[in-house]
Description:
Helix 1 (85-94) packs antiparallel against helix 2. The chain is of the alpha/beta class. A hairpin with a 4-residue loop joins strand 1 and strand 2. The longest helix is centred in the middle third of the chain and has 13 residues, at 99-111. The chain is built from four helices and ten strands; from the N terminus they run βββββββααβαβαβ. It has helices spanning 85-94, 99-111, 135-140, 152-159, and strands at 14-19, 24-29, 32-38, 47-48, 58-59, 61-69, 77-80, 126-128, 148-149, 167-170. The chain has one domain: Beta Barrel (L,D-transpeptidase catalytic domain-like).
Amino acid sequence: MLLAVIPVSFAGDIWLRVDTDRQTLSVMEGESVRLTFEDIAIGRYGVTKDKRKGDNRTPLGKFNIGWIKESSRFHLFMGLDFPNPDIARRALRKGDIDRDQWQRIRQAFHIGETPPQNTPLGGFIGIHGVGAGDLEIHGQYNWTNGCIAITNDQMDELAEWVTIGTPVEIH
């Protein structure tokens, strides 16, 4: 699926701030908080600047919502445009991806497409609900493979604020 990627810009527009230390997801308008969801779940092994496929960590950085899938096993899935060029550049320098993979990621961003989701960096990172999962486990553990999870009801509320291209900052 080809989707437009809009550059991250926080001046007066709606954007999402994910605070992995406080475990909150906030809907922001400029620098004003419009809504905050608490007790989010992140990757079961925490966060990283240099995510790799299968590491079960949530990537830190600035992204955009690249696609929204309404009938996901996680109730609703808002995919991030991961990996972004900064992450890919670091991975190339470290030898985690080859030049061809780096070029494909860069090219996707240049033409406004979702970057390749099948590189050694992983993919299909996003914000999603619990689906039919256990809310008690969600409230007690970081359980995702690298995504940000909130309850299904919270996802429905978040969906009212988010469109394709909405900036997301994970820190």
